[in-house]
Design brief:
The complex is a heterotrimer of chains A (141), B (578) and C (384). Chain A is α/β, with parallel strands linked by helices and 141 residues long. A 4-stranded parallel β-sheet of chain A has the order 2-1-3-4, sandwiched between helices. Helix content of chain A is 45%, strand content 16%. Chain A is globular and about 45 Å long. The two termini of chain C are 33 Å apart. The chains are: A alpha/beta (141), B alpha/beta (578), C mainly alpha (384). The interface between A and B is large, with 51 and 56 residues.
């Protein structure tokens, strides 16, 4: 059996979650490894959420927000972007491959792009292999 | 703290979910999760019997939290919240797991899909343990309405509202009211005069006591929220402070500029004109070439700027019928004229339109089909000794022959596209745009006039190209919605806002810097931040920025999301080991 | 090649009997339902389109109208009542007028007055010739009791007349066929190897004689093919009898009824009568698609042939029953109908199809064989 990674995706309610819904209503097929958690805005996504996802055993974390300039709350996605870059550095310091976390902009009309992103990211994580953070953390404690 | 008693309901959605997810297995497995009192599956949870099932179970099993695993919460979250209310529970003691749009419709492996469904429902169950009762909040409604755009849609909406006695502020970018409709001669399919219709309305609107018109005015920025918007409008050097409860966006679309399409030579060949320029000719009552002669051959080219990946992929909807209208007008103005329609597909849906197509085709109009994607016609100057001024070369699809059309006048049926300032307007009003730069409605099927911003409605062409009756229907639909809120005097608003725990707040003011709505102020006396819940829209940015964790984003609290992750991962990993 | 669309062609075709064609929206049902549809040679929808757009060159190079025998199936099943069958019929008139270099065909098709004038004029000339020459009206009978027809109309003079008529008509038809050949094969630049002309030649007499393709049309069991075939064979046999075998045909002896001359004559008469009555009843009742629309040329064709046949029968009866004066005057009348019928209807009007149809089939098979040959050589070259 091939290795099936588990990926948690944080999607903002207005653009990306609607985009993912569109992928559904358009019956586009994508990898079932993506599990979506809805937040109101990508600006709501705390570093804590991402770290917690890895700590609980996720192999990858996907963050999606509105395209720059399209944020329902004007600029939440810019704040998300800033945090993302910081968090990437932090992940590297922790010994995690920074590619396990990805940030992409998905608008409400980009169902197709979301489906493609889901497949692409799943393949990426699959190639990186399982994330050992959970095991390591459990041995340490 | 009261005991947590969760009811879990898995929807089949007919076969939509059930064919790809083993709903019974999901219900069985999740009924074993802690705090889950009951887990059931049912054909259509959103149906009346489905909702009754939940209400009965709440009463019978004394449930205090409900998880429904069905379609997207964007479709039915409100439905089920109302169900909870009917059963006497707080509507926020509810969580949806989206196993249709995110599972059954996008995956094709039943085993994997069922596993994923279990993980998503487990996440919802874990999350709901942290849910708390939230109280409804209402705001009063200012009965005035701002209408942006003075075309047929905006004018109709303004008149409808003003006639009920409400104040309307109508803002028009240009000096002249009437929009695109004021620029055309006849309407299709019944060839009524557009001028008669629009002029009567403009006249009424100009003299209406309840309507204040702002010409040559552009909306800069709008503050506030449903019921209580305000904006400063500059006009002729003076500024007016307007307060209004609802906004209707009716900014329309503009005609496509065909200069970029090399094949058509617009701007270079003098007698290649756009449909809008031809309307002007018709309004002037004279169809003449640049030389001042009556044309003997008139060619009409369809789909200019529409239905082509180089320009716009969408259909502009109105051009086919306008082109047929022109054929009729040409035939009656110059009986002997040769009329050629170079089209890609003839789209004649809707009342009276196919009939117009049939009657026009009996008037000796030559219809020539070309490939709109790969093989546009080419317009070129005719040779000096030719009988016509221009020739149009094209590959005619139905005959398979390469042909040329003689022409003295070429009318390009230009499509419709977004206004140049559409993006700025969307930002200032706070609405989204879809891929084609049209303003996005709340739901393409179920809610085509409202937007995701409460109190803002989109009507007419700016939402998508449409005919006059459709624009008018939308305008009237939006006014009905607005009238309902004005009559009630107040509306419920989102309770998902941020709150500050003053005991933990260290007064760093980080939240104040990140808030996009200036909803957070600083209480100097207590040295803490304070959230104005009327302004707060609940994006949660402050919550994730707060270094001490003093700010809670209601309904999206840290605990709720972290347990959701935990729940999701627990099931996901457990299942992976299978 | 680029062709200019021509809305004026429609005005032209309307005069030749084309009904309004706006109804056609190119669903292609006509091409699908047609029993004879063949790529490149019979495609009613494509012809319809060429006509609609006024693509003269393509239309004139198209042999589809001749490949159609008008079963009417396309018009019966057309979802828009655009009547493609009748369009093909009208286009046969158009093509006839196009192949005819003299321009008379066009004149007769579009001007009723001129057509009647030509027919009556020729008939008058025939009658005048008889009057000027003044043949002896011999009232005596032969020993068998028959009329002395050969003294009234000497074989050598009638034969001379027959042959000169045949030569003129043949010359007109052949020149028109050459014109057709130019328009169908040469002008569009179709390359046909010389050998193919020879190998496909048999199709010309074969289709003329059997009209095998027409049988495929006979899907509804309506005897079209049978009636048409009998009329055609009757006409051909009679034509050969009066032109080639005149000395054996126009005789004073009264042969026994089983004599070949009488048997052939009777067969021709029967064939013509059967076919003509079938057509006349059909056209009056309009009981089938093929008979729904009757152009003047359609009626003239059957009426003149019918009159010729009936006068021929009367002539025969009067002669063998020894009625000299009736025989002589009927003879004049018979010739006065026959001459204009053959001289006008055969080269310039509906009857020309007896030549154009077999040649269209021949040209179609030339094209097909040539492209097959080209394909095979191409394939061989590719393999090599």
């Amino acid at each position: 059996m091939t290795y099936e990674p588990t990926i948690i995706a944080f999607l903002c309610n207005w653009c990306s979650y609607t985009g993912a819904d569109l992928a559904g209503t358009s019956r586009m097929k994508y990898a079932s490894n993506i599990n979506i958690i809805r937040v109101m805005c990508s600006g709501r996504i705390e570093p804590m959420f991402v770290l917690s996802a890895f700590r609980e055993g996720a192999d990858g974390v996907l963050i999606c927000g509105c395209h720059p300039g399209d944020c329902h709350y004007h600029e939440g996605n810019y704040k998300c972007l800033r945090r993302f870059h910081l968090l990437q550095k932090y992940l590297t310091q922790m010994g995690l491959n920074e590619e396990r976390m990805r940030l992409e902009w998905i608008s409400a009309s980009e169902g197709k792009q979301f489906a493609e992103l889901a497949d692409d990211f799943t393949e990426k994580i699959r190639s990186l292999g399982p994330c050992k953070l959970k095991e390591t953390a459990e041995t340490l404690t | 703290m009261e005991e947590i008693r969760i009811g879990v309901y898995i929807c089949w959605c007919g076969t939509n979910i059930a064919k790809m997810v083993d709903v019974e297995d999901v219900a069985r497995e999740l009924s074993e999760m802690p705090d889950v009192v009951i887990a059931k599956d049912y054909k259509y949870m959103c149906s009346d019997p489905g909702q009754d099932l939940i209400i009965k179970d709440i009463k019978k099993h004394n449930l205090n939290r409900i998880v429904v695993s069905a379609c997207s919460p964007r479709i039915h979250e409100l439905t089920f919240r109302r169900t909870l209310e009917n059963a006497g529970l707080n509507p926020y003691m509810f969580q949806m797991a989206n196993i249709r749009e995110q599972v059954s419709w996008v995956h094709d492996d039943r085993i994997k899909a069922t596993k994923k469904a279990k993980a998503l429902v487990a996440a919802a169950i874990n999350r709901i343990k942290w849910h708390e009762s939230l109280d409804k909040r209402t705001v009063s409604i200012n009965p005035s309405t701002l209408v942006i755009g003075g075309g047929i849609a905006g004018i109709t909406a303004a008149l409808e509202l003003a006639d009920t006695g409400s104040q309307v502020f109508l803002v028009e970018k240009e000096r002249k009211l009437g929009g695109n409709m004021a620029k055309i001669d006849l309407t299709f399919p019944y060839l009524n005069s557009a001028q008669q219709i629009i002029n009567e309305k403009i006249d009424r609107i100009e003299h209406h006591p309840n309507i204040r018109i702002f010409r040559n005015t552009v909306i800069d920025e709008i503050f506030g929220y449903i019921g209580n918007f305000n904006s400063t409008i500059g006009q002729n050097g003076t500024e007016a402070e307007l307060k209004f409860g609802n906004i209707i966006v009716a900014t329309g679309l503009k005609s496509f500029d065909p200069s970029g399409i090399k094949n058509y030579g617009y701007g270079k060949l003098p007698d290649v004109i756009t449909s809008l320029e031809f309307e002007q000719m018709l309004l002037n009552g004279k169809i003449l070439t640049k030389e001042g002669k009556e044309p003997a051959n008139v060619a009409i080219i369809h789909c200019v700027g529409s239905r082509n990946s180089d320009e716009h992929e969408y259909c502009s909807r109105t051009c086919c019928m306008s082109a047929l209208k022109y054929a009729n007008q040409l035939r009656s103005a110059i009986p002997e004229v040769n009329i050629y329609q170079a089209y890609a597909d003839m789209r004649a849906f809707g009342k009276g339109c196919e009939e117009l197509y049939c009657s026009t085709s009996r008037k000796d109009v030559m219809f020539l089909m070309f490939d709109q994607q790969k093989d546009l016609p080419v317009i070129m100057e005719a040779k000096a000794d030719d009988s016509c001024k221009m020739v149009i070369e094209m590959n005619e699809k139905l005959s398979g022959e390469r042909i040329e059309i003689p022409a003295d006048l070429v009318i390009l049926m230009v499509g419709l596209e977004a206004q140049d300032d559409a993006k700025e307007l969307a930002r200032s009003v706070g609405i989204s745009m879809c891929g084609n730069s049209f303003f996005m409605e709340k739901h393409p099927k179920l809610d085509p006039v409202a937007t995701t911003t409460s109190g803002v409605y989109v009507v007419g062409n700016c939402q998508a190209p449409k005919e006059i009756p459709d624009a008018i229907s939308q305008a009237k639909a939006a006014t009905a919605r607005i009238m309902a809120t004005i009559k009630q005097g107040e509306v419920e608003v989102e309770v998902i806002t941020a709150e500050v725990n003053e005991d933990i707040c260290c007064g760093c003011k980080t939240c104040i810097q990140v808030c996009p709505y200036t909803a957070i102020t600083f209480d100097e006396n207590n040295s803490v931040s304070v959230v104005n819940e009327a302004i707060c829209k609940g994006c949660g940015t402050c919550g994730s920025a707060c270094p001490t964790g003093a700010i809670r984003s209601r309904h999206f609290t840290d605990n709720q999301i972290l347990s959701q992750i935990k729940g999701l991962m627990s099931k996901s990993l457990e299942l992976n080991e299978l | 090649m680029i062709q200019r669309v021509n809305p004026n062609l429609k005005k032209d075709l309307l005069k030749l009997g084309v009904k309004d064609w706006n109804e056609c929206f190119h669903c292609g049902n006509c091409t699908a339902i047609c029993q004879l549809t063949e790529e490149d040679s019979l495609n009613p929808r494509k012809v319809f389109r060429q006509a609609q757009l006024g693509l003269k060159t393509s239309l004139q190079a198209n042999i589809s109208p001749w490949m159609c025998y008008y079963c009417g199936e396309c018009s019966d099943t057309c979802p828009r009542d655009a009547n493609p069958g009748e369009l093909m019929m009208s286009l046969r008139r158009y093509l006839t007028s196009i192949y005819d270099w003299t321009g008379l065909s066009r004149l007769f098709y579009t001007n009723k007055f001129m057509e009647f004038a030509a027919i009556l004029g020729l008939a008058t000339i025939v009658i005048l010739l008889f009057a000027i020459w003044g043949p002896p009206l011999d009232p005596t009978l032969t020993s068998e009791g028959g009329v002395k027809i050969n003294s009234f109309a000497p074989i050598k003079w009638i034969e001379l007349g027959d042959w000169s008529m045949a030569v003129v008509v043949a010359a007109l038809l052949i020149s028109n066929i050459l014109n057709m050949f130019y328009k169908v094969i040469i002008k569009p630049g179709v390359k046909i190897p010389l050998s193919v002309y020879a190998t496909e030649l048999w199709k010309l007499p074969a289709h003329f004689a059997t009209q095998a393709k027409f049988r495929k049309c006979d899907t509804k069991g309506k005897y079209y093919w049978g009636a048409h075939w009998m009329m055609m064979t009757g006409y051909t046999i009679m034509f050969i009898l009066i032109v080639v075998f005149l000395p054996e045909f126009q005789v004073e002896e009264i042969y026994d009824w089983w004599h070949w001359q009488r048997l052939l004559g009777y067969y021709s008469t029967f064939g013509l009568l059967f076919g003509l009555i079938y057509v006349i009843i059909g056209r009056i009742k309009q009981n089938n698609q093929i008979f729904k629309f009757s152009h003047l040329s359609d009626w003239l064709f059957v009426i003149m042939l019918f009159m010729t046949t009936v006068s021929g029968i009367m002539l025969h009866l009067f002669r063998i029953n020894g009625m000299p004066y009736a025989t002589y005057y009927t003879y004049i009348a018979h010739i006065a109908i026959l001459i204009p019928m053959i001289c006008i209807e055969v080269p310039f009007s509906k009857w020309s199809h007896l030549a154009y149809r077999p040649f269209a089939i021949y040209f179609a098979s030339l094209k097909k064989a040539a492209s097959e040959k080209q394909y095979k050589t191409g394939l061989a070259a590719e393999i090599a």
